[in-house]
Design brief:
Number of strands: 0
Strand content: under 5%
Number of helices: 5
Helix content: 40-55%
Shape: globular
Structural class: mainly alpha
Length: 130
Amino acid sequence: MPEESTDLPELLRKIREKDPRFAPEAYAFTFQGLDFTMHEIKGRRQHVTGQDLLEGIRRLAAKEFGRLAPMVFRAWGVRKSRDFGDIVYNLIDAGVMSRRDEDRIEDFEGGFDLATAFENEDEPPAPRDA
């Protein structure tokens, strides 16, 4: 695990020094996707596979962004579902997430296609009043 004194923004800065492809928002959304997957899809806290997480991310993105999800992901540097695997493994290498021996980065390949995964989604929700 990261040192207690290391806060998330500082940790993300260090991760992005090594791999600048993805915006901090992509990392934050990956955490949100993990939480969503554990609660909404899995129904209880247990191990989440790469494919489980991709489905959770897809469903959360559909809920949050609708058909604009591919545009949001591209703005964050995410071009394909495997990119979420790179994000997860960057977080694992930083000690923020963990993995089991059977987990592989290849588990994130063959996930959803960003070009078509959100075509049938409703328009994104209207902005909330502050």
